[in-house]
Input
Amino acid sequence: MRPGLARGLVELRQSFTGPELLGQLLWPAVSLVALVLLQHRDVGADGITWGAFAVPGVVAMFVALGMLLDVQQVSADREDGTVLRAKATPDGVRGYLVGKLVTVSLTVLVYVAIVLVGGALLVDGVDLRTVDWATFAWVLALGLVATRSLGLVLGALVRSSRGAGYVSLPVVGLIAVSGLLAPVTALAAGWQALAQVFPVYWLGLGMRSAFLPDAAAAVELGGSWRPLQTAAVLGAWAVAGLVLAPATLRRMTRGESGSRVAAGRERALQRVG
Output
């Protein structure tokens, strides 16, 4: 745990210093600009503007997008030999897993903090004093576990950084149909059913229940926040991820070897050439 935590903090510091800092701040800043420009649009709930509706959705979106960070980082570490070096160290795979969870989770929390503070300052109808912080905390905790572990599973299944780009397409598509930025009731019934299978929809629903008044639930499926179903689905995905992620990573590391890493580097160099 200690080496993993130290590794995660080192990687976090590296990703938020120098030129990397601008890249990290870009997407939260772009999201805030979009919220400010479109904040006064109506979403159909009594007295609720799109800006107030979308702020918790953007928070959920960044938590879900952490899956892509997991996929990108694990696939890159596999390609450059980092995973192989972890395999050669006693308990190195566990330390690697802990470090990756720390790095990505804290990165996501930085994004969330930027959106919350920026939304409170710039978007009408967002008041952090009225947020149900207890609900926010348990939804965020379950959402982080569910999405982080799912991201690690996907990252372990991807063999190269190019493959990580292909995985991003269905993840972004899932976020698009999960009702994070607009009521999911506006979608066709088939898309609504698909969205409810995965944790992203329930993450957004739980966040909105923490930020918005009860009247805003009128635009949700069933006209309710459905807290019990939210906890059940997020909890089920979290448990499944905690079981699958270590097993998938162990299976991935068993197949790692110096020759495979060298072959991967050769393919990467050929693509660059």
About this structure: The chain has a mean pLDDT of 86. The longest helix spans residues 50-80. The CA atoms of residues 52 and 125 lie 5 Å apart. The chain has one domain: 2-163+174-257.
